[in-house]
Amino acid sequence: MSKVAVIFWSGTGNTEALAGFIGDGVAEAGGEAEVIQVSDFDTSSLDAYDAFALGCPAMGSEELEYDEFEPFWNEVKGELGDKKVALFGSYEWADGEWMDTWKADAADAGVNVVDTLICYDAPDAEAEAGAKTLATKLV
Questions:
Q1: For the domain that residue 91 is a member of, what is the CATH number?
Q2: CB count, 10 Å around CB of 97?
Q3: CA pair distance 4, 36, nearest whole angstrom
Q4: Fewer CB within 10 Å of terminal CB in the chain, N or C?
């Protein structure tokens, strides 16, 4: 059984909702999911997981949240090895450029990104379905 860490930062609750849908999708696909706020994740436990879903909304001018999530990302991106990783988050302006930038940074670091998911504002039924589809790629 695949053990998947769904690690997220959320300001308005939209990315947190996506994290919950991904966790549900992992369980429905036969995996074990732990949905964890980034501030509660112990980076020394990376080896305990088979895959990761990492979530952060677009902040500022299309950036990762800089107080908690970006430092976490910079610490772990070189440690993920060939484990499956999905990136996800929500946005409320612009066109989702932060995800393109994040995915490029992941590629430069050698992260095995299997999928990404962005959601405009609050997740709807389509975003929920996308989150569950993304989850199956991690199990």
A1: 3.40.50.360
A2: 13
A3: 11
A4: N
DSSP states of 14-53 as a string?
A: HHHHHHHHHHHHHHHTT-EEEEEEGGG--GGGGGG-SEEE
Considering its fold, how many domains does the chain have in total?
A: 1
β-bridge pairing 51-55 and 112-120? unpaired
For position 6, what pLDDT does the model report?
98
Q: Distance between alpha carbon 118 and the CA centroid of its chain, in Å?
A: 10
For 58, the domain range is 3-136
For residue 34, the cross-strand partners are 5
Q: Which of 18, 94, 107, 28 is nearest to 63 (CA)?
A: 94
Per residue in 17-52, pLDDT tens?
999 999 999 999 999 999 999 999 999 999 999 999
